């Protein structure tokens, strides 16, 4: 194995995904711990092993042990780079993690309560295991820092308590990766690019001259498109009614964990399962997913003043021709628009960002 350089870590509530890169940014090893808190599974270089992992600490311990089994210790690394979902309005580019940056990530927890705490847990665990190892953070919200105020501000009054209540946008590392890699297919980056990150979480991004000018996700990753378990677009009045009927916690769970494809189909949040099911409810969920992508795509095309190309990425975007074809059928009114499938390379993009600081 070539000399390791950067370990990229993406820590979530039920999974921790890592990728190890050498100094030339060639991927050396991929380790993914999934099903944390239940029937866990550790996937190493594509091979899966069932493994009990009651919490993230156990998952991290297994990842560290696996690295050692491949003769990789933390002191052989040049750095660890973390994907962090929310950086607020101040963390808008790659950062070396200092106590001040860590505190700022913690300050953003109310903006991403399902994500930032798990990122911080991984950062803290790495600090405890290797205090002198440089750590870096790339932020999902950073790519959207170029969205103009007319697009990111809600029509709310100017009040100190409302500071930070605005549209942010997410999947930024994915979209930044698309901007970097799409020219390998197109020779030059299309000036008006409609990018679609479609997976369990899904969003669209209007990319004008390589910069984000509008996106479907907003204050949180909950808004926008129909997703695996998230409701997506829903009237604020309906949300208030749900809170009054069920209370804050149950309404929160309903909107984040029991809606979307799962809620519509009553079967699954997994698009592959729905495509194979061929039941009326499963088909309706698929149709809903594609309809709202096309409908919201129209607003992003308007934000760019037209569109020159469409790029699909993410698990569904890359792997489901049925979904891609259904979406482009809805968008035939745009005329003949070139479409591309761009494999997501978020970990490579994050490693490249960290390398610029190392």
Itemize the secondary structure elements and their pairings.
Elements: E1 4-11, E2 15-22, E3 27-34, E4 41-44, E5 47-50, H1 56-69, E6 79-84, E7 95-96, H2 99-107, H3 116-129, E8 135-139, H4 149-152, H5 172-181, H6 183-186, E9 192-198, E10 202-208, E11 211-215, H7 236-246, H8 248-257, H9 260-265, H10 271-277, H11 280-304, E12 309-313, H12 314-319, H13 321-330, E13 339-341, H14 346-357
Parallel strand pairs: 1-6, 6-8, 9-12, 12-13
Antiparallel strand pairs: 1-2, 2-3, 3-4, 4-5, 7-8, 9-10, 10-11
Helix pairs in contact: 5-14, 7-8, 10-11, 11-13
Briefly say what this structure is.
This protein is an alpha/beta fold. Helices cover 40% and strands 20% of the residues. The strands form 2 sheets. An 8-stranded mixed beta sheet has the order 5-4-3-2-1-6-8-7, with helices on both faces.
